[in-house]
From TrEMBL:
Residues 28-37 have a biased composition (Basic and acidic residues). It comes from the Bacteria. It comes from Streptomyces filamentosus (Streptomyces roseosporus). This is GIY-YIG nuclease family protein. Residues 1-37 are annotated as: Disordered. It holds the Pfam family MUG113.
């Protein structure tokens, strides 16, 4: 018969001074740092790092840690202000990302979508064929969805009716056939290539 396991009992007191140079205080050297200093915690951590590195902790070491942490706080404040200013500058600028409206074939359906990153989008969709790509944004995509609403299969997927095929042919004549070969899954069908 299997005997039940006895619970582990930790005999070590976490606040014991037996295995530490910490003589009863929970944080060493806390008496050397002004309790009202706003950087007190960071200074004490830096002093502790000094101690771990073998530096003898005296008033000069605490002074160095305090100077460094005040400089670090000022540097972080400058960085934060610079980041905030950059974010505000970017928000004030008009959105100038390059947008594309694409026509891809997945199975027997055509997906009309919009993206700012063709490679990432096609990698996630894995189309059988890239039919056409045109510059444009969300308004263009929405207009195309409305134009071909009678052929909608669901969402952004459409049946390849004559009107949609004619539109894709016109785009290919005007902009050229897309030379996209990455991330496609060929199935032996090419709707527009001879």
């Amino acid at each position: 018969m299997v005997q039940p396991r006895k619970p582990r009992v930790s005999a070590r007191d976490p606040f014991s001074t037996k295995h530490s140079n910490n003589s009863g205080r929970r944080i060493p050297h806390m008496d050397k740092v002004d309790p009202n200093d706003p950087d007190r915690t960071d200074i004490l951590l830096m002093v502790h790092r000094f101690e771990l590195a073998g530096v003898e902790i005296d008033e000069r070491a605490v002074e160095i840690a305090a100077k460094y942490m005040r400089w670090e706080r000022a540097r972080r404040a400058e960085q934060s202000a610079a980041q905030t200013a950059e974010l505000e500058r970017q928000r004030a600028m008009p959105d100038t990302r390059e947008c594309w409206v694409y026509f891809i074939r997945i199975g027997q359906l055509v997906k009309i979508g919009m993206t700012t990153n063709l490679a990432r989008r096609f990698t996630s969709l894995r189309p059988n064929e890239v039919l056409a790509i045109q510059p444009g944004g969300l308004d263009d995509e929405t207009a195309l969805h409305s134009q071909f609403a009678s052929m909608r299969a669901g969402g952004e997927y459409f049946h390849p009716g004559p009107a949609l095929q004619d539109h894709i042919r016109k785009l290919r004549d005007e902009l050229g056939s897309p030379k996209w070969t990455k991330s496609i899954v060929p199935d032996g069908q090419n709707w527009f290539d001879a």
